[in-house]
């Protein structure tokens, strides 16, 4: 895994935040919003709260084990609890500190375990997967633009030129409760995953992103630098952040209380 965040060519401050931990198979990316630089407070709080809780709780959780009622892996409950607690912290801070009023953040967080991936997201930060030279978006934006695309009011091409691309319909910390979308995917050796803020995909087409990942996927630091540079060369109108994670081989979970330890990278 590698992570890179850049303020871009227009913004004075970077309101994105990223965190990775190879040993846990964890990657988190947040894109903050709010006046008086409160966006960077929200994204920073999200990263700190979620990463801290995951690190504290994961050693005692068998991520692969299924809940008998829901049938979902324990990883889902872990992610949803951490997100709910982070949402509460951000919401209360925004209420109690006037300079932070109205702040919030998008979020995408992944856990790799047991040859699979769990991803939770809120807002329009994305997770992509490159497999067999095919790039696919695994998350669906919580945005006004996406709703209009889904309803047939806009085509994908028309959406690229819309002036309200950044209007999200869901964000962490805006309300006292928030619903995160959460899904599971089987992973394969050679898969390359990209978490990014909209500062990347607003500036680049999926084809451009795919080409850069295919050309430089064997060198993740260079690939991340190239993606950020391409976004800046295209205008860099927003902060741009990327996390790249490549699956090098099997990381089947050992059935023990320490099964979350991943020797896969």
Automatic annotation (TrEMBL):
The UniProt GO MF terms for this protein read:
protein serine/threonine phosphatase activity
The superkingdom of the source organism is: Bacteria
Q: Which residues cross the membrane?
A: none
The record's InterPro entries line, in alphabetical order, gives: PP2C, PPM-type-like_dom_sf, PPM-type_phosphatase-like_dom
Cross-referenced SUPFAM superfamilies: PP2C-like (SSF81606)
Residue stretches making up the PPM-type phosphatase domain: 1-247
Q: Which NCBIfam families match?
A: Stp1_PP2C_phos (NF033484)
**Protein name (record):** Stp1/IreP family PP2C-type Ser/Thr phosphatase
Source species of the chain: Leeia aquatica
């Amino acid at each position: 895994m590698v992570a890179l965040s850049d303020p871009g060519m227009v913004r004075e401050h970077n309101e994105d935040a990223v965190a990775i931990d190879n040993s846990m198979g964890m990657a988190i990316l947040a894109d903050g919003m709010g006046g008086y630089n409160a966006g960077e407070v929200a994204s920073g709080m999200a990263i700190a709260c979620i990463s801290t809780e995951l690190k504290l709780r994961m050693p005692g959780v068998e991520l692969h084990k299924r809940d008998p009622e829901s049938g979902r892996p324990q990883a889902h409950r872990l992610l949803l609890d951490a997100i709910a607690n982070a949402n509460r912290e951000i919401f209360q801070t925004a209420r109690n500190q006037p300079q932070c009023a109205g702040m919030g953040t998008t979020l995408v967080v992944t856990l790799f375990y047991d040859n699979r991936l769990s991803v939770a997201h809120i807002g329009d930060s994305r997770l992509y997967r490159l497999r067999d030279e095919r790039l696919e978006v695994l998350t669906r934006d919580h945005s006004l633009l996406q709703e209009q695309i889904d309803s047939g009011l806009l085509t994908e091409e028309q959406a690229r030129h819309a002036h309200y691309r950044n209007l999200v319909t869901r964000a962490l910390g805006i309300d006292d409760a928030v619903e995160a979308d959460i899904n599971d995917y089987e992973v394969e050796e050679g898969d390359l995953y990209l978490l990014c803020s909209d500062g990347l995909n607003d500036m680049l087409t999926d084809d451009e992103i795919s080409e850069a990942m295919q050309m430089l996927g064997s060198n993740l630091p260079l690939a991340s630098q190239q993606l950020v540079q391409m976004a800046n060369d295209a205008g860099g109108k927003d902060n741009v952040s990327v996390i790249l994670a490549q699956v090098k081989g099997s990381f089947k979970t050992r059935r023990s209380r320490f099964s979350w330890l991943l020797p896969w990278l």
